[in-house]
Design brief:
Elements (H helix, E strand, L loop, with lengths): L2 H14 L22 E13 L2 E5 L4 H7 L2 H12 L16 E6 L3 H4 L28 H12 L4 E6 L28 H17 L6 E3 L24 H17 L5 E2 L2 E3 L15 H6 L16 E5 L7 H17 L3 E6 L17 H17 L3 E8 L1 E3 L11 E5 L7 E5 L1 H10 L7 E7 L5 H4 L3 E7 L5 E7 L5 E8 L6 E7 L8 E2 L3 E2 L4 E3 L3 E7 L1
Parallel strand pairs: 1-17, 2-3, 2-10, 3-4, 4-5, 5-6, 7-8, 8-9, 9-10, 11-12
Antiparallel strand pairs: 1-14, 12-13, 14-15, 15-16, 16-22, 17-21, 18-19, 18-20, 18-22
Pfam family, one: Glyco_hydr_30_2
GO molecular function: hydrolase activity, hydrolyzing O-glycosyl compounds
Protein name: Beta-glycosidase
Length: about 525
């Protein structure tokens, strides 16, 4: 998803996000808490929710130039920041230990050059498949460099995704649409060819020791992805649910024929509401693909797991909207017996401003990001969470809404540059470094009786257990005041100590570790901070 996609998609937003008046206001008596009167958070180890599969990010679009041309020392440090789980001598993390990395399988717009119609050359992508039917595995060298680094650091889940079929398979010979008709760009007789291309990519990397756990054949199918040649922002294609069914069944067959074990990720909806509502040809996707009575049911396909993926863009306009959308999504997914994965998010809309005028600081953006992750995990019951763009040119100080690392290219060719770490990286790390694949979310309750909407401007808590007496709590203090929490633990037998890692506005407060402390009372929270508490 790009910033340009925001303008195209705004027209979908308002009709699908209307809320009942009852959700606009919280209710009930609120018991105020302060630093001197800790917020009591009850955590019962026996009351678990979803299992977390991964927390990750994507390398689009700028990994190609960085991985191919930038000095080795710089890209090595960038990889360490994303993937390392190691600590420095003082206990400070060297990176945020992502457990998923998204790799873009390109459609061949780079080879087309300026005639591709995509204006920014950095957002054109090479294709492994040549027009003559042969494969060139030296393509996408920069993307591959980071893919191999992810593997070397032990990232548990590699995810391949495609924004467009190879351009030679498309109706207009381009990697994006030129007609605004919401029809797939893929030629009607090329569905199996597209599926075979994707499975061949998976097969190649399997042989290289780079196993993709998941392959995503369509991306944000609800958007029209149309533009005039020379004005397009990126590769992309719309897909109807019928199209997605054809792609998915063809890909399932192709993976099976080649005896590959990668699973198919569907549907990467452009907005969460399309997963359960709407009237377009690519709406109500949970019901379409996971209702056993649906003619497009995919539950029986060998390579289709029991989850559906969507993007949290544009469902963050206010706290009531944020809560209502995720509550509806969680209820629908539960009804059909599947999981929900949040597979792309950055602050494309202006919800992160929360009504404030002027620029938002690094910490403002990081706190909003931490809030979105909390809401997706605790209300939406997301079983995975993935950030969109790890790096992008932009300010390192203000409105750091699109990236974890702010890039400053050194030249127009993008062959070198500098980068600055933003607070977004560390806020994501408060989750990714400590909530590991296989951990289960634990239900929590609070003594101040705040409902989910009001809590989104107060203190937000997410708790996870990772085996006997291992507890991780990520606590977002959204207020301007120092606060404290008093965890009340049930069904944990021998928790005796804890350590905190705090991200706050201070220059050195980037997952800053505390000393190991005895667990016997309240835990302090800095104002406007994200704190991960590791028990035992």
């Amino acid at each position: 998803m790009t910033k340009a996609s925001y303008n195209r998609s705004m027209k979908f937003k308002f009709s699908s996000l209307l809320l009942p008046a009852s959700l606009l206001f919280g209710s009930g008596t609120v018991a105020q808490t302060t630093a001197d009167q800790p917020l009591v958070i009850t955590v019962d180890a026996k009351k678990t929710a979803q299992t977390i599969h991964n927390i990750g990010a994507s390398g689009c679009w700028f990994s190609e130039g960085i991985g191919k041309y930038w000095p080795l020392e710089k890209r090595e440090r960038m990889a360490e920041l994303l993937f390392s789980k190691e600590r420095s001598a003082d206990g400070s993390p060297k990176g945020i230990g992502l457990s998923a990395w998204r790799f873009n399988i390109g459609g061949g717009t780079t080879e087309q050059g300026d005639s591709s119609g995509i204006k920014d050359f950095r957002k054109r992508v090479e294709c492994f498949l040549n027009p003559d039917g042969t494969y060139d595995w030296n393509k996408q060298a920069g993307y591959q460099w980071f893919l191999r680094k992810a593997k070397a650091y032990g990232v548990e889940n590699l995810i391949a995704f495609s924004n467009t079929p190879p351009v030679q398979f498309n109706l207009n010979g381009r990697g994006f649409k030129t007609a605004k008709d919401y029809q797939a760009n893929l030629q009607p007789d090329k569905y199996q060819a597209y599926a075979d291309f994707l499975s061949e990519v998976i097969k190649h990397f399997d042989a290289e020791g780079l196993h993709f756990n998941y392959i995503s054949p369509v991306n944000e199918p609800q958007w029209d992805w149309s533009n005039k040649p020379g004005e397009a922002s990126q590769e992309g294609s719309p897909w109807s649910n019928a199209d997605i069914y054809k792609v998915t069944t063809a890909l399932d067959a192709s993976l099976g024929k080649k005896k590959l074990t990668s699973q198919i990720m569907v549907t990467e909806a452009g907005m969460l509401t399309y997963l359960y509502s709407g009237k377009s040809a690519s709406s109500r996707q949970i019901q379409t693909f996971f209702d056993h009575k649906s003619p497009q049911n995919i539950c029986g396909l060998k390579h289709v797991p029991g989850f559906i993926a969507g993007h949290s863009y544009f469902t963050d306009t206010n706290d009531s909207n944020m809560v209502a959308v995720r509550r509806h999504l969680a209820d629908t997914a539960k009804k059909y017996g599947i999981e929900y994965w949040q597979s792309e998010y950055s602050m494309l809309g202006d919800g992160f401003r929360e009504g404030a005028k002027g620029k938002r600081s690094q910490m403002d953006c990081a706190l909003f990001l931490a809030k979105i992750i909390n809401q997706d995990l605790t209300i939406g019951n997301a079983a995975a969470w993935q950030f969109w763009n790890s790096w992008e040119p932009g300010s390192p100080e203000w409105d750091t809404r699109y990236y974890l690392l702010a890039l400053k290219p050194a030249n127009d060719q993008f062959t070198d540059g500098d980068f600055t770490v933003t607070k977004n990286l560390w806020a994501l790390g408060n989750y990714s470094l400590f909530i590991r694949p296989g951990m289960k979310r634990v239900l929590t309750s609070r003594n101040d009786q705040l409902d989910e909407v009001k809590a989104a401007q107060d203190v937000m808590v997410a708790a996870f257990t990772g085996g006997k007496d291992k507890l991780v709590m990520v606590v977002v203090n959204y207020t301007d005041e120092a606060r404290s929490i008093r965890p009340q633990l049930k069904s944990f037998n021998s928790i005796k100590s804890y350590r905190t890692y705090t991200t706050a506005a201070g220059e050195k407060e980037n997952l800053k570790p505390s000393a190991v402390q005895q667990f016997k009372g309240a835990i302090s929270l800095l104002p406007r901070s994200v704190t991960t508490v590791i028990f035992n």
